[in-house]
């Protein structure tokens, strides 16, 4: 009997996370978070997602003053803020995937109050890491037809 190592299928990833070169593997993602993200990273998210900056900033949970300060100082998003940026990108990626990469439908859904979130829009609910996880959970339930 021979033992072989597991080799993933190599299926090409698509979507926002892949476009932004963000890993979904926890170990690699953790390393990316330790490195932090450039100040312009949110602009890359806006550009690649084709969503409005206001929606992206709400989902990421960063206020405009912090965004402006980072842009002016060219400082990196690090620590808890980097985690919010990463998780926000995950939420946006999942929302776009839910609507077959249609940014208009995804944005409309993100900004519409959801009964499953206590009549709060997903973009407002996702202002912190726990809210981001709740929105990801809701998207997963919608994709798999699980009643809320």
Top keywords for this entry?
single chain; 148 residues; mainly alpha; 9 helices
Describe the model.
It is globular, with a radius of gyration of 16 Å. The N and C termini lie far apart (47 Å). The mean pLDDT is 90. The protein is 59% helix and 0% strand. It has one domain (23-143). It contains 9 helices and no strands. By secondary structure, it is mostly helical.
In terms of topology, how is this protein built?
Elements: H1 16-19, H2 26-35, H3 41-49, H4 53-60, H5 64-73, H6 79-98, H7 103-110, H8 122-125, H9 129-143
Give the distance, in angstroms, between the N- and C-terminal Cα atoms: 47 Å
Report Rg.
Answer: 16 Å
The secondary-structure element order is HHHHHHHHH
How many helices? The count is 9
Shape: globular
Strand runs, count: 0
Main beta sheet strand tally, sense and closure: none
List segments where confidence is low: pLDDT < 50 over at least 5 consecutive residues. Answer: none
Describe the structure concisely for a colleague.
Helix content is 59%, strand content 0%. The chain has 148 residues and is mostly helical.
């Amino acid at each position: 009997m021979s033992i072989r190592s597991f080799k993933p299928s190599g299926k090409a990833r698509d979507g926002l996370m892949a476009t932004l070169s963000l890993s979904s593997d926890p170990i690699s993602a953790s390393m990316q978070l330790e490195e932090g993200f450039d100040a312009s990273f949110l602009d890359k998210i806006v550009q690649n997602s084709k969503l409005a900056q206001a929606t992206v900033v709400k989902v990421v949970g960063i206020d405009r003053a912090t965004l402006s300060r980072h842009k002016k100082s060219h400082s990196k998003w690090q620590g808890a803020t980097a985690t919010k940026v990463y998780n926000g990108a995950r939420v946006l990626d999942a929302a776009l995937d839910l609507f077959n990469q249609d940014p208009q439908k995804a944005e409309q859904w993100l900004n519409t109050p959801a009964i499953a979130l206590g009549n709060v829009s997903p973009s407002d609910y996702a202002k912190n890491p726990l809210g981001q996880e709740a929105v990801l959970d809701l998207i997963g339930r919608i994709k798999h037809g699980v009643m809320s």
